[in-house]
Amino acid sequence: MVAVFNKELLSWYLITLKLKETVESGLLILPEAPSARPIEFPEAPQHQQPDNSQQIVVNDDEEKSASPESEWIISIKEKLQQANQDAAADSWAKLCIYRVPRYLREGDDKAYIPQSVSLGPYHHGKRRLKNMDQHKWRALHQILKRTNHEIEIYLDAMKELEEKARACYEGTLSLSSTEFVEMMVLDGCFMLELFRGVAGGFKHLGYARNDPIFAIRGSMHSIQRDMIMLENQIPLFVLERLLGIQLGQSEGLIANLALRFFDPLMPTDEPLTKSDRNKLQSSLGYIATFDPLGDQGGLHCLDVFRRSLLRTGPQPVPRPWIKKWSHSDRVADKRRQQLIHCVTQLREAGIKFKKRKTDRFWDIKFKNGILRIPRLLIHDGTKSLFLNLMAFEQCHLDCSNNITSYVIFMDNLINSPEDVGYLHSRGIMEHWLGSDSEVADLFNRLCEEVVFDINESYLSSLSEQVNKYYNHRWNTWGASLKHNYFSSPWTIISFVAAVVLLVLTFVQTFYGVYGYYWPR
User: Fold this and answer.
1) How far is it, in rounded angstroms, from Cα 234 to Cα 227?
2) Residue 131 CA to chain centroid, in angstroms?
3) Within the chain, how many helices (H) and strands (E) appear?
4) pLDDT of 322 higher than 50
5) Are 343 and 422 in contact (CB under 8 A)?
């Protein structure tokens, strides 16, 4: 065992000597690795020098790590500078074309996204909408051909309005100056050709009778729905400048053309009156202009359309500025949005429903237990129309919530297909959808994520009157009696017979008791 032990000890000793000689001769080469550490030999004094070099490398790493940190601080300062610019009051003064908030999109994203044509920067360049670009260029070419104008006139005019037009859109736009100006000219001229074609005829503008776009055909309805969306708007002053270049004057004419173009989307079956049509035609003949909005002006086509719906309605009351930014943190509470009970419950309380003869669909009246509601037309574009109108009211500061109030009021009235069927039987509601259940589902989904304050509703006073009548016990009992015993001739006869039988029974009992105590 001693021999073996000495032999092993000798082997380790020889190996140690060999390694020492190799290190001293400098023939040992170790492969470099990112995670490898150099082997230190304390007995060798020459290994102190690699420690100094290693310290130098560490200092280089610290210098390199300091550079990204400085770049990070610079980027933060740039973001703060941009935030300071965004916080300036002037940056929000002209904002009127908004991106629909995400909390509203959760209900139905398709209702806010154009399906046929893009207008403005929000959906510009999307692949599925590029098919319409060729028709936009055709419209611009037709305008230049018809007016003998050079394209530079339109481009220069839009360059003058570029900064003002950019301020109308929310957020930073990625389009360059030339791209933005080109888009404004192209989209604006396309809209003007559609407006003028619907009002005065496309043939008069030089388009063929079988033109796929510039003709009164089925595709026009899809284009109209896209052009009324909040994210698909062009500032009205851009359209006025472009039309002014073509005609020489355009004051008040754009609003008339827009209303005539979007007339099929009106939620009522009362079209423009003959007097209004005559005034519109005279304005197209450059004799005079007729502006249904008076001196209120307009921001874009959706705003013009909304103002026309409420032109004789309650005056908009500007809301506090904090409302615009606080609604994203508020939760839509359905309990606080319950204005009145549904149709079925109101009928049980004795409230009657009648059609009110007026073209102002929002003008609802209540008196002596009778709720008078104007006729409402519902078609396949009604959902998108109401959603975009409500989105604009939710986003824009100086805007009332009258459309939102009306939609929530109707949502409260309609809880079931039976409610829709009764309103239809009373002539209050007419729809072109598949069934009454689809209409009920439409209204129940319209206000899912809408933030709404009852106190700001123009229908709050009317709702209080209805609820007061509903909570009166005598009205409920009278309605129940009428429903159970006077709903048909047979129930009336049965009720009268029961009353007569009860009276005879009472008389018989009276005389029986009278004869017993006071016999003759």
Assistant:
1) 9
2) 25
3) 21, 5
4) no
5) yes
Contact criterion met (CB below 8 Å) for 115 and 227: no
Query: Residues near 276 by Cβ (< 8 Å), separated by ≥ 6?
Result: 290, 292
Q: 390 phi and psi, to 5 degrees?
A: -70, -35
Q: b/e string for 4-36 if b means 16 or more Cβ within 10 A?
A: eeeeeeeeeeeeeeeeeeebeeeeeeeeeeeee
CA distances from 133 to 68, 178, 213, 395 (A): 44, 17, 12, 30
Q: What DSSP state is assigned to residue 108?
A: -
Task: Say yes or no to pLDDT of 324 above 80.
Answer: no
User: What is the per-residue pLDDT for 287?
Assistant: 37
Q: pTM for this structure?
A: 0.72
- Cα dihedral value 174, 187, 254, 192, nearest 10: 170
Tokens for 378, please give them.
């519902």
pLDDT of residue 384: 93
How far is residue 74's CA from residue 70's CA, in Å, rounded to a whole number? 6
For 187-213, the pLDDT digits (tens) are 999 999 999 999 999 999 999 988 999
Strand order in the sheet with 352-356: 352-356, 370-374, 365-367
| Site of tokens 């919530």 | 401
Cα dist from 25 to 30, 43, 46, 48, 239, whole Å: 14, 15, 12, 17, 88
355-412 pLDDT, tens digit per residue, is 998 888 899 999 999 999 999 999 888 999 999 999 999 999 888 899 999 999 999 9
How many angstroms separate the CA atoms of 130 and 115, rounded? 11
- Judge whether residue 60 has pLDDT over 60: no
Determine the Cα–Cα distance for residues 277 and 282; give it in Å rounded to an integer: 9
151 vs 8, higher pLDDT: 151
